[in-house]
Amino acid sequence: HGKGYLSLYAHNQSLLKDVGNWVNAGDQVATAGHSGGLTSAALYFEIRYQGRPQDPALWLKRG
């Protein structure tokens, strides 16, 4: 993202990109997994601006 923005993804089974890789819209970055004591596959997604969490709904395409 740059300019103070970053995205976080957790509960991954596998990562498909490395830290610092440029990601284009539609690129797959990970596969969902069962980490953190979860009983089914899940995704944790967060957008931060200057270290502070932001509302991710503003970044998601509606369709």
Helical amount: under 10%
Low-confidence stretches: none
What is the CATH class?
Answer: Mainly Beta
Cα end-to-end separation: 22 Å
Secondary-structure arrangement, i.e. CATH architecture: Distorted Sandwich
Q: Give the CATH H-level superfamily.
A: Glucose Permease (Domain IIA)
Sheet with most strands: 3 strands, antiparallel
Radius of gyration: 13 Å
Describe it.
Helix content is 0%, strand content 35%. It is an all-beta fold. The protein has a single domain (5-54), classed as Distorted Sandwich (Glucose Permease (Domain IIA)). The strands form two sheets. A three-stranded antiparallel sheet has the order 1-4-5, with no helix packed on it. The chain is globular. The relative contact order is 0.29.
Labels describing this entry:
63 residues, mainly beta, Glucose Permease (Domain IIA), 3-stranded antiparallel β-sheet, two-stranded antiparallel ribbon, globular
Can I get a quick summary?
It contains no helices and five strands.
Give the SSE layout.
Blueprint: E1 5-10, E2 12-15, E3 30-32, E4 44-49, E5 52-54
